[in-house]
Backbone:
């Protein structure tokens, strides 16, 4: 069974630009969660999608948004990039809710904002 | 707000010994607690999940305990090997009464097993 895939793996953008990251969950998984990981803050929850609906949202500004398609693939978008958005963005999928189900993480997208 | 604390300093253990990692939390009563392993440049990998009504859980050389009175989980690796060297993260379910809030992760403990 193929694992969670994320594209692109690396991305360099400049301040003010926007970016879209993509995540393909494991086949059959309906829940997709996104996390931001930085050395200072660690792994922080961005949002979770289930059956094309955002079910939960972390404490991030509205510049961070996402969506999920009918095939469970998910995208996240960050608009008006700031230097502080430089981070590893991780996507994780699970069968149902991530709270009591094992989450399978992708390799992440390393975003650098210059 | 929920707060999870893991030893931020690296933990150095001699090969063959038992490594014990600590996860403390405050302002919360999680129904579940999970442990993940993360290697450099990779996403976390799920290891174990323990429920609030479970005191202990084992998987091969791994053992997790969950003390809801102390608000603490201990993660043990017995007969440690250099290949066990990694960062270990604990995560709590984010249910706060008004709905699930996603998993809340600690910042992780970097474990180094020395040959």
Residues:
């Amino acid at each position: 069974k193929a694992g969670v895939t994320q594209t692109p793996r690396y991305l360099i953008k400049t301040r003010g630009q926007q970016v879209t990251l993509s995540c393909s969950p494991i086949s059959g998984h309906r829940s997709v969660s996104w996390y931001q990981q930085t050395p200072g803050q660690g792994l922080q929850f961005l949002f979770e999608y289930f059956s094309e609906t955002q079910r939960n949202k972390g404490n991030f500004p509205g510049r961070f948004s996402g969506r999920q398609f009918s095939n469970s693939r998910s995208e996240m978008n960050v608009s008006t990039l700031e230097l502080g958005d430089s981070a590893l963005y991780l996507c994780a999928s699970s069968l149902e809710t991530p709270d009591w189900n094992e989450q399978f993480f992708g390799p992440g997208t390393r975003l650098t904002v210059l | 707000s929920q707060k999870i604390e893991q030893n931020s300093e690296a933990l150095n253990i001699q090969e063959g010994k038992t490594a014990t990692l600590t996860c403390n939390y405050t302002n919360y009563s999680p129904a579940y607690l999970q442990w993940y392993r993360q290697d450099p440049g990779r996403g976390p990998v799920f290891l174990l999940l323990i429920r609030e009504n479970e005191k202990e859980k084992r998987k091969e050389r791994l053992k997790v305990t969950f003390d809801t009175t102390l608000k603490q989980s201990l993660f043990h690796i017995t007969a440690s090997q250099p290949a066990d060297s990694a960062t270990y993260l604990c995560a709590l379910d984010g249910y706060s009464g008004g709905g699930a809030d996603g998993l809340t992760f600690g910042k992780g403990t970097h474990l180094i097993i020395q040959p």
